[in-house]
Amino acid sequence: MSSTLSRRDWLRASGLLTAGLTASFHFAKAAPATTYGQSVFVDEFAPIKTAGIDSPPDTMPKLRARLLANENPLGIAPSAKEALTKAADIGNRYAWTEFAELKGMIATDEGVKPNNIMMSPGSSDILMAAATHFAKGGGTILTSAMTYDDLLERAQKQGAKIVALPMTKEYKFDLAAIKAKLTPDVKLVYLVNPNNPTGTILPASELEAFCREVAPKVPVFLDEAYIDFYEPAERPKLGKLVAEGHNVILARTFSKIHGFAGLRLGYAIATPETLKMLKPYTNGEFAVSITTLMAGIASYQDKDWQNHCRAENAKARDYTAKALTGLGYEVIPSSANFMLFPIRMKTKSFSEQMFASGIGIQTRDFNGQPYCRVSIGTMDEMAMFIDGFKKVVG
Ligand SMILES: Cc1ncc(COP(=O)(O)O)c(C=O)c1O
């Protein structure tokens, strides 16, 4: 399988990596516990080979519905646009007070102190820093089989062994199985909630209990890229664990509900000691531009826009799930801005035909089963997706 392209190679080859479209996902084999080693790593990433690989980069501008990167189809908030315009006037200045302003707002909401927060150009920078730091000198990173691969891939390249446990039958992280695998060799537990690509969530109480039990032994990295799609009242509030001094690292991004995938803004919430250890592996906070930061401050405060995006996403997601169920497909219940479902065609052929009809999606094979992951676009885009899907699957 040495000829297999990794996800990153594919993105690079297709020009998507440079375009910042790294919102892909990765399936590893499930049962029994999967151990990535240097040699099997490529094998484990083999499904990438069929993941839209035949969509050449010049297909992208021609897409009628771009449903492959979990972007916000509604764009950025009008308030953020206004802030961007104003920020252009001070583009010659380094940002100082702006960092403090945004951190202050986040800290108040999360119940932490500003020194528990580190800003970054998207959360990828935080993921990469954690991968490099925790993989130093080897050791194991414990996670689940069907999850986001960026941190894992980097950590593996830095010498860590990745152990990806099977998910529960509901496609959720199996927290009990993870706990049972904690050995002195484990350097980090990586969880994604809601998870990409399954869209599944862990109940807030279970997650909190897990972190309280595990974090005193092993740091827990919680990738919350899609957390804003939860109803605010139902969100796990794990900032309090950080405030209590637990070794929990929360990674957040503005790329999703705020629509900043291209503008690049994210942050980590962790203890000051942990942030200090991660910092040398980041590009530093000044990698965030003053324009993005000012737009971020506006967007962060614009709860109306966030509620609007969340509601529109839920509406289009329900429509899509109902339409697919009506066609006899079993959709994994999603709490995010994408959904995953098994298909009955080979991924390559499915992907090719969908792209040819102007609908960009992602596909994966997992345990011999082909799946489609479709990002949630506007209602019009989802209607196009269903229409295209019907034609392709016959
Ligand atoms: C689970 C998850 N984490 C992190 C990221 C990184 O996003 P960004 O670097 O745009 O913040 C993504 C992107 O899609 C993601 O799906």
UniProtKB/TrEMBL annotation:
GO molecular function: transaminase activity
Record's keyword annotation contains Signal: yes
Aminotransferase class I/classII large domain residues: 67-387
Record-linked Gene3D superfamilies: Aspartate Aminotransferase, domain 1 (3.90.1150.10), Type I PLP-dependent aspartate aminotransferase-like (Major domain) (3.40.640.10)
Record's signal peptide: 1-30
Keyword list, A-Z: Aminotransferase, Pyridoxal phosphate, Signal, Transferase
UniProt family annotation: Belongs to the class-II pyridoxal-phosphate-dependent aminotransferase family. Histidinol-phosphate aminotransferase subfamily.
PANTHER family: HISTIDINOL-PHOSPHATE AMINOTRANSFERASE, HISTIDINOL-PHOSPHATE AMINOTRANSFERASE 2
Official protein name in the record: Histidinol-phosphate aminotransferase
Organism in which the protein naturally occurs: Spirosoma utsteinense
